[in-house]
Amino acid sequence: MRAGHRSVPHTADTRIEAWAPTRESCVTEAVTAMVEAFVDLSTAEQTDSASFEVSEDTDEDLLVTVLSEVIYLMDTADVIPLRARLDPAEEGYDVHFDVTGIDQLELVGAVPKAVSLHGLRFDDRPDGWFCSVTLDV
Question: Where do the domains of the chain lie, and which CATH numbers do they carry?
C-alpha cells in the first residue's frame, strides 16, 4: 500500500482520511491532510522544529493526541507543522514536527479548533493502516 491522504466532503466541519503501510506513517499522513485542509503548503519552508512524547493506550488516542498537538502549536506558538515523524520511544513515541510560522503561509480554509471523536476510525487492515477524522472548525 502506498501512503496518501485526502479531504472528504462534510456538512459543517472538515473531514480527512489517511492511509499508509504502517501505523506511524498513517499518523503522519493524517497530520499532512489536516494542515493541507486549511493552508497552502506549496511554498512553505521549515523555520523551526517542535517535538513531544506521546504514550497512548489505543491507536485512536495516539491519532487524536498528535492531531490535537497541531492545534495546540498553532494556538500557543503560532507555528504550523509542515511534516511529522514518529519515532518509537521507550514508552510510546517521540513525535517530531518541522514547523514554520503561521504568518509565512496562506490560509485557504477554515482552521480547525478541535479533533472530534465522532466518527473517528483508525484501523489496521490487511493492506495497511487507514484513519478517518472529523476536525471541528
Answer: 4-8+15-136 (3.55.10.10)
